[in-house]
Amino acid sequence: SNRVCQDVCPVFVLPNVFTPNNDGVNDVFRPGNCSVFVARAQTVIYNRWGVAVFETEDRQINWDGRSSSGVVLPSGLYY
């Protein structure tokens, strides 16, 4: 018999940079075309020293450059 597989778990396409400077362009880090089949995505953002600065289980991530406690983070590299 034939096996039919349908992938309902797409790959997140994430931006490689964002600029949370309130100019209305690329102000929020979020995946592109997030599928309705994804219920949640655990995301942890780390600073260059390996300290977790932001955590969410929202599938849209919606990171605006602030820490989980609401403090505006400085420009820099985050992983």
* Total DSSP E strands: 2
The end-to-end span amounts to 45 Å
Major beta sheet summary: 2 strands, antiparallel
Spatial strand sequence of the major β-sheet? 1-2
Instruction: Give the helix/strand class.
Output: little secondary structure
Poorly predicted ranges (pLDDT <50, ≥5 residues)? none
- Assembly state (oligomeric): single chain
Question: What does the overall shape look like?
Answer: elongated
Mean pLDDT: 85
Write a concise keyword list for the protein shown above.
79 residues, little secondary structure, two-stranded antiparallel ribbon, 2 strands, 0% helix, 11% strand, elongated
Report on this model:
- The protein is elongated.
- The protein has no helices and two strands.
- The protein starts with 42 loop residues before the first strand and ends in a 23-residue tail after the last strand.
- 0% of the residues lie in helices and 11% in strands.
- It is mostly loops.
- It has strands at 43-46, 52-56.
- The model has no long low-confidence stretch (mean pLDDT 85).
